[in-house]
Amino acid sequence: MYDFGDIVCTVVITGAAPTHVVDVVESVPPTERKARHWALLWHEWTLVVVGSLALATVMTWPTLRHPTRTIPSDTGDPTMQAWQMAWSGHALRTDPLSLWQANAFHPEPNSFAFTDTLLGYAPAGLIGTGPVAALVRYNIVFVLVCALAFVGAYALVRQLGAGRLAGTVAGIAFACAPWRLAQAGHLQVLSTGGIALSLAMLARGHGWSLRHGYRPERARPGWALAGWCAAAWQLSLGFGIGVPFGYALGLVVVVAAATWLRRRPPLPRRLLLADGAGLAVFLAVAAFMARPYLAVAEQFPYVRRSWENLQWASPPLRGFFTSPGTSIVWGEMHAGARAALGHRGETSLLPGFTLYALAALGLVISVWTLRQRLLLAAGVVASIVLGMGTQGPWGGRPTYGLLYVLPGFDGIRTPGRLVIWTTLLLAVLAAGTVTALAQRVRARPVGLALALLPLLLVAEGLNRMPHPDVPAAPAALATAPAPLLVLPSGATIDGIPMMWATDRFPPMVNGAAAFTPQRQASIRDAASHFPDADSVALLRATGVRSVVVVRAAVKGTPYEATLEGRTDGLSVRRVDTPEAVVYLLDPA
Known about the structure:
Blueprint: E1 2-3, E2 7-12, E3 21-27, H1 30-41, H2 44-59, H3 77-94, H4 122-125, H5 130-160, H6 164-175, H7 179-182, H8 187-190, H9 193-205, E4 208-209, E5 213-214, H10 221-236, H11 239-263, H12 269-299, H13 335-340, H14 353-361, H15 370-387, H16 400-404, H17 419-440, H18 444-451, H19 453-461, E6 484-487, H20 495-500, H21 518-527, H22 533-542, E7 546-550, H23 551-554, E8 573-576, E9 580-584
Parallel strand pairs: 6-7
Antiparallel strand pairs: 1-2, 2-3, 4-5, 7-9, 8-9
Helix pairs in contact: 2-5, 3-5, 5-6, 5-9, 6-17, 6-19, 9-10, 10-11, 10-12, 14-17, 15-17
């Protein structure tokens, strides 16, 4: 019997040469069809996805108000990341083998691996071309990463055995934590939804939950494979978040294997095959991503973070109770605490006081067992201590120092980003609390208080995030001979010319990343007195054919004098336009 939506048919197959006899047995009445449609509309996961999109739009507003001309947070890293998505899509569309040889940082090789690449968003980069498309693409993805964080945390705690209200609480806590406001300019740090979602898929695939343990009959090999693929996708967004995630997955595998060896429950063969295939995908992606980064580390040894480099970016304990300044609820209230943290903007790491309170209550009231609660609490404490980096006990040597010796951790700039794991563990603890209270509460006032918990968490995430206008590209940039240099140039401002160049991706000296190559630093220095004989000779030796000086941007910078530069005897031709001055180094 087959259900084709409106008609249910019975197919009879007989004999060596089958004949198909189709009898109309039943026609589904319109009322039943309508009921099915409503059931789909009000299905839990339909509501979760739609709700996550609505929540993300509100929490990131006004990101989608003017997506063609504004960008969240600032015009530094976000414009560079808009270029990253555009470049990966361009490379896949035109020459996938040259993916790592980006047009920025000319003439350095493997320049796409100079920082986290957001490679997992490459499919979005296939849609549209040019700076406006890059900006719209970034703004949409910025909203979607918040939605995915909600869905991932919701799915995880639901799979672990929590209720729907608890899932909502965990999703909001993970997606709207105040510390995310301090990372608003770092899309790779905000992109944490894949972590929770992959863990949820892996748990579902293995038929495991906190409340019921391992149940072989509930194993779903397809979900297990999907979980490994989601983990591989998360890793492709960047190693800054991906390296700790990879080691966390390894720890989960070791603990699961040790538990299995002790009890030896049955493991379906299809599940083992799915795990093997999924792990192969994850390791293949890890190897593909690691190869260019290892080449960059060999070429530029100073990209590795020394222990001393970590000191300025390591938060003290009070950082985990301090809110960023853009928080509407806590921003002004925590101004003194932020001042005590110094200039380190990424050390305001508050997961949320409501979340802290629910997690603390979870040590007393919870659907999780006492042992599980203590392990979760230990994980929270451990993640905070490790996240303190060099500010940890005894200078961090016996804590974060144990991670620092592991491959990959010497490339991570900010230990405090381990707050991702603090928040996720707190959310799981809080989910146990909310589920237990929802099961026990019968009084209407207390039930109403539980229903208001999501609003409290949302309130802590409300913000005054700036959305500056991104300047339009000067028309001369579209025709300037490449390779080229755009002035002014600097580590915090080169994202703008990089994004401008997404219409044709010309090779350019400009580039913003996690470090500055020595050759690029030398060119920037020389260009401060361009055009003179030395700077022109250096640029020509580098292969640069034109220098574009943006009139509005160069004022007030060390490059302002280049607007009136003299080219006598330099074989350089100057072309003046309303928006820029273009110097042609090969005037023929």
